[in-house]
Automatic annotation (TrEMBL):
Protein name per its UniProtKB record: Zinc resistance-associated protein
UniProt KW keywords: Membrane, Transmembrane, Transmembrane helix
Bilayer-spanning residue ranges: 12-33
Domain of life (superkingdom): Bacteria
UniProt-annotated stretches for the region Disordered: 127-150
Length: 150
């Protein structure tokens, strides 16, 4: 009997860990995708740190404004940010499909551990927790095949 209880505890712990990993991966993917969307759709001055060209006009992101930079420092930092932009965007575009694949794979693994009822509850929780907005409209929550009966 003791082995059965320990086994259930391990399974529950593994499920929680997988759920947390899935959540973290989803958050990271959402943040990355949102940055790309904003960078593509926002006017130049409204783009987030590292994703636009407002620095060409001498305007740096807020965190740099609090450093009391000299004009020379502002100009040099703006140049660094502008020059690094293509490289960071290229990496982001390369990694997003892989990140999505990992997220989907983890979600499928977690669903395989759950009962049908638990999978349904997970689906409803994911719908409630899913980031909202235009960035996420084209990517509905995957339901996947039903979890096996337990």
């Amino acid at each position: 009997m003791k082995d059965g209880v320990e086994s259930l505890g391990r399974i529950r712990a593994q499920g929680i860990v997988l759920l947390l990993v899935m959540f973290v991966v989803g958050v990271l993917a959402g943040v990355a995708l949102e940055r790309v969307r904003i960078a593509r759709n926002a006017p130049s001055g409204a783009r987030p740190f590292g994703m636009g060209q407002p620095w060409a006009e001498g305007h740096l992101p807020m965190m740099f404004r609090e450093l009391d930079l000299t004009a020379d420092q502002r100009e040099r930092i703006a140049t660094i940010l502008l020059q690094s932009r293509p490289r960071t965007e290229r990496i982001l575009q390369e990694m997003l499909p892989r990140l999505r694949a990992v997220t989907d794979s983890v979600r499928d693994e977690v669903r395989a551990v759950l009962t049908v009822e638990q999978a349904a509850r997970l689906d409803s929780l994911m719908v409630r927790m899913r980031p909202r907005g235009p960035m996420h409209q084209g990517r509905p929550g995957r339901r996947g095949p039903p979890a096996p009966e337990r």
